[in-house]
Predict the structure.
Amino acid sequence: MEFSRRDTLALGLGAAVVTLLPFSVNAATDDVIASFTGGADMADTGIELTAPEIAENGNTVPIQVSAPGASAIILIATGNPTPGVAQFNFGPLAGAQSASTRIRLAGTQDVVAIAKLADGSFAKASSTVKVTIGGCGG
Amino acid sequence: MASGVKPRVKVPKTASAGEVVIIKSLISHKMESGQRKDKEGNIIPRSIINRFTVEFNGQSVLDMTMEPAISTNPYVQFEATVPEAGDFVFTWYDDDGSVYDTTKSVVIV
């Protein structure tokens, strides 16, 4: 098969669209982060995210977050169809600003946790989880 | 109302005043994400628990917002301070408007 000038152009355009697609996923993640932080800067310390390095089953991945003194923590799965996972708001009787739960991951991706600390600043931690079997059905 | 929803919570029966206790909560719920399709290719509608709150004698311990990415049978473990004798009230809010709750009492020793 010979490529005409028109075919070549179409191929190039298709390739450009494919390379742009991941950015739309990241944009959804950025929206979730922006709606929580309001665009504020995030420190790297003050929050701890515990996630497995490899999860055999993406349907139940144990995750633990801990941020001493935080008033709220959000969990984000950057590679999921909807990136938001959960938001923990700690009340005055919380014994420690930590919680653990089980989440679904669609595939290998970064899990991000952002905490709103007592002084109003934000802290971020992320961890890459390798997923063998995705957990979003199909 | 989703069928077979049963909350289970593990709270110590006794504590000393001001003690921090670990609480484990689990509710059986299918947490349909709204992403899956049935055999005919129709999307199964989303049906999840979207909020979980814990209060002790009316004071908030935890208020958690859940998205479809929370696994089937949502499990949450957290810590709470017990300042005095009283009741923990756990409440789950379903997408369909149902509210499930359970209460656990703690005695000071």
